[in-house]
Amino acid sequence: SLVVLFGATAGAYGAKLGSDERELILLVWQVVDLHSKKVGTLHKSLVKADNLDLSDQCREVSGLTPEGLGKAEPLDRVLQQFSQLVSSDLKVLGRSSYTLCSDGQLLIRQVLHPETSKKNFLLSDCFYSFYDLRKEFHTCYPSSAAVKDQTIKTMAEYLGLGTDEAEEDFGVWQVKTMVAIIFSMLSEGCNHVFTEPETVKHKYETGPCSKSETVDSETVIRARGLPWQSSDQDIARFFKGLNIAKGGVALCLNSQGRRNGEALVRFVNSEQRDLALERHKHHMGSRYIEVYKATGEEFLKIAGGTSNEVAQFLSKENQVIIRMRGLPFTATQEDVLGFLGPECPVTGGKEGLLFVKYPDGRPTGDAFVLFSCEEYAQNALKKHKEILGKRYIELFRSTAAEVQQVVLNRYMSTPLIPTLPTPIIPVIPPPYTIATGSIRDCVRLRGLPYTAGIDDILEFMGDATGDIKPHGVHMVLNQQGRPSGDAFIQMKSADKAFMVAQKCHKKMMKDRYVEVFQCSGEEMNFVLMGGTLNRSGLSPPPCKLPCLSPPAYAAFQTAAVIPAEAAALYQPQALLPTTRTPQASAAAPPAVTYYPAQAAQLYMNYTAYYPSPPVSPTTVGYIAAPPGAVAAAATATHTPILPQPGALVRMQGLPYNTGMKEILSFFQGYQYAPDDYNGLIQLSDQARSVLQAPKEWVCL
């Protein structure tokens, strides 16, 4: 038997059903005996929603009113009545089992499952298997319209069914027409058989993912804005009703191994992925989650792994994974098992523990633990911030993908999540100009949410993003390298800056209003160098020494050569000269690292580099020295500091009272440059500012 089911929400209707997160307000159903071609009683039930504010489309299409819905039963009671009435109708027809049949997948996947999940009650098993009438119709009538273009009305018109929608109540006509379509498909000319129902997974399955695995880019999405403590099960619950692939939730970590509020999710097919995209800005608790397309390559970069140790740890499927953080470096497996205690036994004992280590074998203080059931995991989480040794231990839910990221990050000693490194001396290839005069062609954004990124600013700017200069977005950081809530944006003209300031001032970004002021390039540069703008005017930078400021790029006019002892320390490996061979000429000119003159002006590191459309370089690199600069350096009257390439080493972390004698003693037994230890160089203030270190020495 089939139970033909139709429903409607308080919001969007048709192809957008469920995309606006509105609640169910109507259910209509009827039992159909496929063998005897008999039907049961047609039932219509209104559902009382928590929010009775109906959309205009809902009012127009359904004819329902908030007053009528206010007298209805809530969803859980309606679903209980549904089960009882269906069972009663089946007995009358002499049947015992049934499968749901709906018009498309939206009612089941995008409305019923998400809403019941949020309201914390379980759907009966019948809602985890159903027939999609549109797919069945297209299978029976291949010449009909594509599945995505089908509606109840187009299917009825294709069959020539003469039903009049205006004669019946909303929902009743839809169910009666669906029943008529099913009977047409069962007729002698078609003899359609309903054999392969759609299924909804009861539970998300965890598991490892190999880098050699092929992942279809049409099945992957990126979810952004997740609470940092959310687990893979929380994300699976957010996408309840959609089938996530086994091990298909990968929480993204930053370069410190901490969650950054993003996750990559892989679905079983592109159809499920497309439905997931419709949940853009749906809510997880009080936070809305952004959902975007992603690629299979991105998913493998996060979730893929090849470590035998990790593979063996994750080989036990359907385990609950808990991450422990802050363990004493001397902690052993016995210590961890004793900390967890008998109330939360670890799967496999010591085999269910995985300690995370640095590449040199030192412990990081992190570990992952396997538990066989949710009860044991909950008992373990109750020990959050309890003491082991002299340290409190943090416990969090984790995922297989997080295990691979954390452990493999340590193996590779580089983060899998690509982040723009803090450049030592940034140089951009073309000479993009930055405003430096008194023309007020810039705007200052003040009061930004600390979580705001470049995408949020561009969305905040709206249509004005087209008037931003290339590389004209500058986020201001505080002395700790964290967002300060300020940003500067270079506009194409003073008029554009004025219009933006007028239009966007005190406009909301997330839950905060942002102040927008017009300012000049001179004022902007002053802040980027570490100064402040306030009502009393300009305050000087807090540091007199010239330091680093990545985005303060200016027009390059004349060449300049950074002090060789500083520049040589940061030459990219690809640009380092090869080791000198015995045949090499002794009179070869010294190696020169070339920087544009304005790039040599190094300022306070108060900003982070955020490229903006339409041109966005993917790397920050070095500009090759023009021949003239090399010739000028070769003829200069300075003594080269490198007797041969590769002879320079840098010492970092020296005690502040270290002198030449201690360093020479440290290198006892090695041959260093002679000439009264002229090869031992204490860095000058200018070079030290480049290195960003209090006291360092360079040895030749």
From TrEMBL:
Molecular function GO terms recorded: RNA binding
UniProt-listed Gene3D superfamilies: 3.30.70.330, Ribonuclease H-like superfamily/Ribonuclease H
Biological-process GO terms, alphabetical: mRNA processing; RNA splicing
InterPro entries per the UniProt record, alphabetical: ESRP, Nucleotide-bd_a/b_plait_sf, RBD_domain_sf, RNaseH-like_sf, RNaseH_sf, RRM_dom
GO CC term (a single one): nucleus
Record field: transmembrane: none
PROSITE patterns membership: RRM
Domain (RRM): residue spans on this chain: 320-400
Location of the protein in the cell: Nucleus
Domain of life: Eukaryota
Keyword terms: mRNA processing, mRNA splicing, Nucleus, Repeat, RNA-binding
Main location: nucleus
Family: Belongs to the ESRP family.
PANTHER family: HETEROGENEOUS NUCLEAR RIBONUCLEOPROTEIN-RELATED
Protein's name in the database: Epithelial splicing regulatory protein 2
Encoding gene per record: Esrp2
